[in-house]
Every structure is written in C-alpha cells, then in structure tokens.
Amino acid sequence: MQRQGSIGGSAALRIRVTGGVLLLAHLAIVAWLTLRPLDVPWVMPPNLRPFAGIRADAALGWAQAVRRIGAGLALLAPLGVLLPMVHGRLGGSRLGSLARTVTAGALLSLGIELLQTGVPGQVVDVDSLLLNTVGVALAHLAIVPAGRGLLRRRTARAALHREEPAQGRTPTIPRVGVAP
Predict the structure, then answer these.
(1) Are 49 and 126 in contact (CB under 8 A)?
(2) Tens-digit pLDDT profile for the chain (180 aa)?
(3) Can you give the three-state secondary structure of 44-82, one letter per residue?
(4) Would you give the end-to-end CA distance of the chain in angstroms?
(5) Which residues partner with 126 through β-bridges?
(6) How far apart are CA 66 and CA 68, in angstroms?
(7) What is the rounded (10 degree) CA torsion for 43, 44, 50, 51?
(8) Strand partners, 47
(9) What's the rounded Cα separation, in Å, for the pair 148 and 7?
(10) Of 33, 55, 145, 172, whose CB neighbour count within 10 A is largest?
(11) Residue 64 region, left (φ>0) first, then alpha (ψ -120 to 50), else beta?
(12) 126 close to 48: Cβ distance less than 8 angstroms
C-alpha cells in the first residue's frame, strides 16, 4: 500500500534505491575521512567552545578561513538531499522535512565527533558539529523544495495524460431466493 503523498510507482522505488545507495556511499566516504587514524607529530587539544575554531581560522586569513569553513559545511551537506530522497515523500510539511533532516544530520555529526575521541590524531571540535549541521540545512533548503516541486508537477502531468480504461456498467449479481 502506498503512503499518502508518496511518489507513485516504479519512479518512487528508483529514487529511493538510488538515494539509499548514494547515502551509503557518502557515509562510507565520510567515515573514511573522519575516522581514520592520522600520523601527526602532535595533536591539538579538543575545541569545546563554540566558534573558537572559526575565529582561529578567520585569524589565519580569509583564504584559509573560507577553505576550512567550506570543508566543514560541505562534509555532511549531501545528507540534506539524500535523506529526503531515501524517505521518498512529496507531501507533508516543508518545515517538518527540514527539521527531520537537520536533526538527523546533527546527530550523525555528533556521533562522528564522539567516535573521534578514540581515533589517534583526530580531535573533537564543536565547530565541526555546527558547520556540518548548517551545511545539511543549507543543502536541504537549496535543493529539496525545488526538487519536490518538479516531481509534483511531473506526477501531476503524468496523471493528466494517463488514459484510464473505460469502465462499463458495474456487474450485478441476481438475488437468489430462499430455498423451500
């Protein structure tokens, strides 16, 4: 049975499967980038003060700051598109979709930061959590509403052009009397 507001038919299945495969591939790349041990001569202390790392990056110069902040925003940004793609609903609240996606992105980022406490050479940074979450939100806001609108128009157009089979009179069953 199809959920109300879902994309119909085989298109929904293709979109959801593609989203799931891309999501798994992206998460594997993120895990490799963030959870592999690094061979470094020293390790910086963890950053537990919000925006302290961003301020330090800005003090290094605008080019370095843009590169580091952009990397933080881009790391989990594809989740903003892939999570709704896997969910596969066209209807529903835009705000609810954004809240679910951003919450999932924030929890995933928090999980990565907590796992980094046991990885040599990796350091916990609260600014990474903030930037990753903002990146998920920005990607969702930039792409998902337009993509859903496009899919809604396409499914509505397909429904208009689809010819319904002509149906005749509904067959009736003659009543049978009670046996003597």
Answers:
(1) yes
(2) 444 455 556 777 888 999 999 999 999 999 999 999 988 888 888 989 999 999 998 999 999 999 999 999 999 999 999 999 998 877 778 999 999 999 999 999 999 999 999 999 888 999 999 999 999 999 999 999 998 888 888 878 877 776 555 666 766 777 776 766
(3) CCCECCCCHHHHHHHHCCHHHHHHHHHHHHHHCCCHHHH
(4) 45
(5) none
(6) 6
(7) -120
(8) 125
(9) 10
(10) 145
(11) alpha
(12) yes
Structure tokens at 129: 């959590």
- Please identify which residue in the block is written with the tokens 């790349």: 29
Task: Give the Cα separation of 177 and 134 in Å (integer).
Answer: 73
Query: For residue 66, what pLDDT is reported?
Result: 94
Interatomic CA distance for residues 138 and 102, integer angstroms: 9
Residue 127 identity (one-letter amino acid): D
Q: In whole angstroms, what is the distance from residue 78 CA to residue 108 CA? A: 13
| Domain ranges (residues) in the chain | 9-37+47-153
Question: Which tokens in the block code for residue 180?
Answer: 């003597």
Q: Please state, in angstroms and as integers, the Cα–Cα distance from residue 71 to each residue in 20, 32, 33, 113, 173, following that order.
A: 23, 15, 12, 15, 70
The CA–CA distances, whole Å, from 37 to 24, 147, 170 equal 21, 38, 70
Q: How many CB atoms lie within 10 A of CB 132?
A: 26
Residue type, 48: L
